[in-house]
Amino acid sequence: MNLSVEIYKKWVNGIVEYKDGADFISSEPIETQILQGFQDSRGIEFMVRKNSDRLTGWLSYAYSRSTITIDGEHSEQQVNSGNPYPSNFDKPHSLNLVANYRISRRLSVSSAGGADTIVTTRYNCLCQFPAELSWTLSPKPSGQTKSSENAGLKASVIDEKMS
Predict the structure, then answer these.
(1) pTM given for the model
(2) What pLDDT, on a 0 to 100 scale, did the predictor assign at position 142?
(3) How many angstroms separate the CA atoms of 80 and 125, rounded?
(4) How far apart are CA 81 and CA 125, in angstroms?
(5) Domain spans in the chain, listed from the N-terminal domain onward
(6) If 0-12 CB within 10 Å is exposed, 13-18 middle and 19+ buried, where does residue 37 land?
(7) Which of 139, 138, 59 is nearest to 104 (CA)?
(8) How far is CA 53 from the centre of its chain?
């Protein structure tokens, strides 16, 4: 069994975003509707991995934040009044599980799933939605065909939304 911890921090200067209230129908050139700013991403991930015997797989949890700040000298050169706001890649909490259990030499069952917290901003309001859950369970019988190629079958059950 392996345990790993990863910590990261990344800064991106010159990220491109649209102005607040950008109008794409007007005759103004598109370059007048965009601004450049700064993106700050950081996080930590914990992972436990097992690669032996009949049960293999991993479980991971990540806490991460990704914010953008576009703060120009004038209000028309700012997004969200110059305050940081979550980027499209902001997922504060993410939990993932992948497991494979070998029942016999020719039959194994795989399972994969996870839950993420989605954050969005709209009209200067930070909104956090409930976790989304995605889960797959796959029985996989396999064996040798007459031509010595592997034969297989996969059936999946997926639940897309957790209430």
Answers:
(1) 0.66
(2) 62
(3) 10
(4) 12
(5) 2-152
(6) buried
(7) 139
(8) 30
Distances (CA, A) of 35 to 39, 90, 121: 13, 20, 18
- Nearest residue to 49 (alpha-carbon basis) of 1, 113, 114, 112: 1
Q: What is the pLDDT along the chain (163 residues), one digit of tens a residue?
A: 899 999 999 999 999 888 877 777 777 777 778 889 999 999 999 999 998 788 899 999 999 999 999 988 888 888 888 899 888 888 888 888 888 888 887 777 777 777 776 655 544 444 555 555 555 656 666 655 555 445 555 555 554 544 4
Say how far residue 20 (Cα) sits from the centre of its chain: 26
Give a three-class secondary structure readout of the chain.
Answer: CEEEEEEEEEEEEEEEEECCCCCCCCCCCHHHCEEEEEEEEEEEEEEEEEECCCEEEEEEEEEEEEEEEEECCCHHHEEHHHCCEECCCCCCEEEEEEEEEECCCCEEEEEEEEEECCEEEECCEEEECCCEEEEEEEEEEEEECCCCCEEECCCCCECCCCC
User: What distance lies between CA 52 and its chain's CA centroid?
Assistant: 28
Give me 132's structure tokens: 């989304």
Residue with tokens 């102005």: 19
Q: Report the alpha-carbon distance of residue 141 to residue 150 in Å, rounded.
A: 10
